[in-house]
Amino acid sequence: MTDFLGPPARAVRVTLQPALVLGIATVLGLAMFCWPLFAHPQPAAAAHTADAPFVFMATLPVLILVVLAELSRGGIDAKALALLGVLSAVNAGLRPLGAGTGGIELVFFLLVLAGRVFGPGFGFVLGSTSLFTSALLTAGVGPWLPFQMLASSLIGLGAGLLPRKPRGKAEVAMLVAYGVFAAYFFGLLMSLWSWPFLAGTSTQLGFVPGAPLLDNLHRFAAFTILTSTLGWDTGRAITNAVAIVLLGPAVLAVLRRAARRAAFDAPVRFDQP
Phi then psi for 127, rounded to 5 degrees? Predict the structure, then answer.
């Protein structure tokens, strides 16, 4: 019980400058998803493959900046990096178990729990590294990968920003609600980036360049409900909720015990011989 009720850990302590970097990354990330609503893209689906490398180049520097900024300030050490590698590998191993069938994906529940325990900076980095590692493992590298990395990073970041006080059953209930939200949020963003190119421009669900914003939002809402929300996203939400209810308390206790033993917040002192 002591482990479960332990104080919050900060494997990546986000000070002012890294916080600004994360804030800018969040705004730019959301802009990357929402740009079809404010631009006139080419209708060909293949056209979007030219944008994906730019998103990749926008994602990886953010991760590097967070790590380097914290390394230069002593905010992340070898223990935190090792933990990041272990959790990324675990997530990469969990993802193929469901293979996305019917929305069954186990990668997100651990991301939510880790972001909750280790903070928003760690959650942001873990979101990208988990999806990148699992994509290499499952041969899922493609133009969609950088968008998945951005969306997962935002989920991990949000988990670290949840209120710290709830504990016990109240905390599990809060994490279940966030896990459900994260499932639909991820599906919404992934539908948004692909919508102008998959739906085309000649259907009632398609993107109409230059149309009023509300008209395109109505079309997009119909598109995502029919193609994602009622199927994949709902399956993902159920998977997150069940996994957090069944495994959440035990996983939280293990992660908090690891955080306590790693003593991320303890200052490093060198005794004189």
Answer: -60, -45
